[in-house]
């Protein structure tokens, strides 16, 4: 995995800026605990922190070839095939790493090399007098940038950019709107002046400016295969993807929830290697969530070694955990208990393994969420998960000043964001209205909803130095399934019909027939009471950074947990990150 950062400035000599570049690089230490390095030239500086996965002794970065330098994060899973092709073209390799393959591929094919990569990645290449930033097709790995008068700053996380004095820590109306909305718009990064490189894009930085280019996107089209052929093709793609993603020179495991997605991946992995699997169990959690029971069933069925990672509600409420989550994420979040739970799970998994396979994005690829099957949500004219009552700003109108909420116009913003997303898709001639809308809903899930999950997974895992791979995001699988008709994805009227058919010979019957359950969140009422008490103190303080934006008295109306979490974390974030409000 790793963390990258850098600075291009055509107006100054960056060889004199080592201290600043080191400070930027040091912010990525948890992403890359094994090694670090910087590379300086007159107008470009690259920083790297390494989490060693493949070729532990080689692959150190930044890596150079002549006047070309690379700082790289992620994994390219087809690096062996590319290496063979490049060797045949006369390239000679000094390491076994995929990093060197990426560098040599660029030298051989130029910008077109991105079309040949299969993986999750974000990297920067300085080629003598210009910079190329690249992000993977699905946006699994993050990459932020901050234009300056004479160049650009960039990094895997905002904190790397903010370590440079040129970057201002300002939150304006647009940034606050992004924070409080569930509409994640590609390219937005909350801090004023900062941007996130959209998935499937490159950014070229030259003396005369910045050039953003899209090199990949999902395209609507007809699906030529029948159900039997489709199931076989999906199985083939998944088998190949899992096999590729099992390559590592360090201990590897699967994150096994007992749901269909992670169970299928674990079964496929166990068929080719000795697999360890881990799941989370909240020891003092009431309710009937039986993830760990089904996870053990799967592990026993496929022959995987299995262990439950235990923590309690008290663990997740600890101020140290809350602070660690905020530091890892760089932004306030709406579902603090889920992020805290993942943070602790990943921390404890990292004590046992360095790489983990996750079922993330299976619901977006195969249509697993409940809102796929709710006509009122599907046809709501906005993001279906918003209509289904999971809007993060539900209750915020009771906490924030009415004139501010009117100015933000969150509902209108989300509808506009929905409409602009849908407009990105072309239509298929002769397709009926339901099939067309379900393709739109799938597109929203893959390009908007999944991005929030990728952010959560990336920040929480990399805070522990754990690489989490996501086989369901393989672009070949996503491209193929995207145009599978909804009638085929839902052929037996159950969620993820297609994936159930793919895994019917792999999994126990109890798991195949199990309905989807969400990631376990805290159900203890004491958690909400503690949040309310903390918020009551915040509103009463009057001298906190957020005080000017809040109502004068604690509202007694219904407040959702996301509203409580978001408000409390927003205030903590303003203080911890020294953010200036300009609204």
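Q: What amino acid sequence fits the structure above?
A:
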């Amino acid at each position: 995995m790793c963390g990258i950062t850098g600075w291009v400035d055509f107006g100054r000599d960056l060889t004199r800026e080592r201290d600043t570049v080191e400070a930027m690089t040091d912010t990525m230490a948890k992403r890359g605990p094994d090694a670090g390095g910087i590379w300086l030239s007159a107008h470009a500086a690259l920083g790297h922190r390494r989490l060693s996965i493949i070729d532990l002794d080689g692959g150190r970065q930044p890596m150079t070839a002549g006047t070309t330098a690379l700082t790289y994060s992620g994994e390219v899973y087809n690096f062996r095939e590319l290496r063979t092709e490049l060797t045949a073209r006369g390239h000679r390799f000094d390491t076994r790493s995929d990093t060197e393959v990426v560098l040599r591929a660029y030298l051989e094919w130029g910008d077109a090399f991105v079309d040949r990569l299969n993986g999750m990645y974000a990297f920067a290449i300085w080629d003598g007098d210009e910079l190329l930033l690249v992000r993977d097709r699905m946006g699994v790995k993050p990459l932020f940038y901050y234009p300056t008068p004479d160049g650009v700053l960039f990094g895997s996380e905002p904190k790397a950019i903010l370590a440079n004095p040129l970057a201002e820590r300002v939150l304006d109306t647009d940034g606050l709107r992004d924070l409080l909305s569930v509409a994640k718009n590609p390219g937005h990064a909350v801090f004023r002046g900062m941007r996130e490189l959209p998935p499937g894009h490159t950014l070229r930085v030259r003396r005369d400016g910045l050039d953003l280019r899209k090199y990949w996107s999902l395209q609507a089209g007809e699906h030529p295969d029948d159900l039997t052929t489709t199931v076989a093709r999906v199985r083939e793609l998944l088998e190949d993807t899992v096999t590729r993603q099992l390559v590592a020179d360090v201990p590897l495991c699967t994150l096994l929830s007992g749901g269909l997605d992670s169970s299928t991946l674990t079964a496929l992995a166990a068929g080719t290697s000795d697999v360890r699997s881990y799941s989370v169990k909240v020891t003092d959690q009431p309710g009937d969530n039986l993830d760990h029971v089904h996870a053990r069933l799967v592990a026993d069925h496929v022959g995987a070694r299995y262990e439950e990672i235990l923590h309690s509600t008290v663990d997740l409420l600890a101020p140290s955990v809350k602070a660690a989550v905020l530091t890892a994420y760089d932004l306030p979040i709406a579902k603090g208990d889920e992020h805290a739970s993942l943070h602790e799970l990943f921390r404890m998994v990292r004590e046992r393994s360095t790489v983990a396979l996750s079922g993330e994005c299976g619901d977006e690829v195969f249509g697993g969420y409940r809102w796929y099957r709710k006509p009122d949500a599907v046809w709501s004219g906005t993001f279906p998960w918003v209509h289904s009552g999971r809007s993060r700003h539900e209750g915020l109108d009771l906490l924030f000043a009415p004139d501010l909420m009117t100015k933000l116009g969150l509902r209108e913003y989300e509808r506009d964001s929905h409409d602009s997303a849908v407009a990105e898709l072309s239509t298929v001639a002769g397709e009926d209205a339901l099939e067309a809308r379900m393709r739109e809903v799938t597109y929203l899930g893959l390009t908007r909803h999944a991005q929030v999950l990728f952010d959560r997974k990336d920040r929480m895992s990399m805070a522990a130095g754990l690489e989490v791979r996501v086989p369901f995001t393989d672009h070949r699988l996503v491209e193929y399934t995207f145009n599978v008709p909804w009638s085929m994805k839902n052929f037996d009227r159950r969620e993820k019909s297609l994936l159930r058919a793919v895994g019917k010979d792999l999994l126990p019957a109890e798991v195949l027939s199990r309905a989807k359950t969400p990631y376990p969140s805290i159900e203890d009422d004491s958690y909400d009471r503690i949040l309310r008490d903390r918020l009551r103190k915040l509103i009463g303080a009057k001298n906190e950074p957020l005080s000017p934006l809040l109502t004068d008295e604690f509202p007694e109306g219904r407040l959702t947990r996301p509203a409580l979490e978001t408000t409390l974390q927003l205030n903590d974030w303003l203080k911890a990150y020294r953010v200036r409000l300009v609204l």
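Q: And what stands out in the fold?
A: The mean pLDDT is 92.
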